[in-house]
Design brief:
This protein is an alpha/beta fold. The strands form 2 sheets. It has an 8-stranded mixed β-sheet with strand order 9-8-7-6-2-3-1-10. A hairpin with a 7-residue loop joins strand 4 and strand 5. The longest helix is centred in the C-terminal third of the chain and has 40 residues. The protein starts with a helix and ends with a helix.
Length: 317
Amino acid sequence: MASDDTATTKTAVVLTDIEDVTVHPLVLLSAADHYHRVARGTRKRVVGVLLGSVSRGKVDATNSFAVPFEEDNKNPAVFYLDHNYLENMLLMFRKVNAKERVVGFYSSGPQIRPNDLRIYDLVTRFCTNSAPVFCIIDIRPDRPSIPTTAYKVAEDGDQRQFAHVPSLIGAMEAEEVGVEHLLRDINDPTVSTVASLIKAKMAGLSTLTEKLVEMKDYLESCLRGEMKINQEIIANMQTILNLLPNLNTEDLVRAMLVKTNDMHMAIYLSALIRSVIALHDLVNNKIQYGEDGEEKKEDPVVAVAAPTPAEEKKSEK
């Protein structure tokens, strides 16, 4: 009877529904370093284990480590995952932080592969509190949205498949300070601050446009009867619309015009000053090097000695 209760408890823990997955910056840095060390410039992908905690269906991935992994691109059924390395790393991580448990595994993707379900079964053996999650961490730098996509395994009859789970990027206070110091050291002198700010604004606007188009398509599908109306989604849309500012007030319009004029004036003055400085440098170069592009050399001064009194008398005679 006790064994039956234990089995029932384990089954209940495994079937606990996962609501969302929070990925911390340390996991992103470790995955990016793993990819650049092993699979940069190739079509291979890397696989690692996620460590963290699970509380009420919320997975918090705070750490990770790489695992030796190889797979045959021609035959998807052939792959290799080093179990001994995985067990040894888990033992060492438990000595450092006993609270961190295996919560899933990650892959550089960028898509789901046929071997992922088999890797999921292998990682399940090391998960004691809940079912593992599968997180794809996209290493490509041109990705406009967050680089993580989380999945869980859902059973549809006799088949199993990955179901999408909301993923977040979260950080504790100490991690935020570390990320800020890390970003300060990353400085590209070829890109100005204004250009980087405009690029970030454009990326944010493109992502906002994609989300608005997705909302429009959902509402049109509900009107056509192709999808069922979800009251939670409709309530979230209404909340978003209620948070939009009222742009028809006179004070706000005047403030935006004044702010825009001030910014344009600063841009105009900076461009004018930059042009004047460039012309000044050009004139200095012309003076220093001349028309032929060669640096001008001053004529040598020949020192003439003053005549002695005897030489002066000879010249008079």
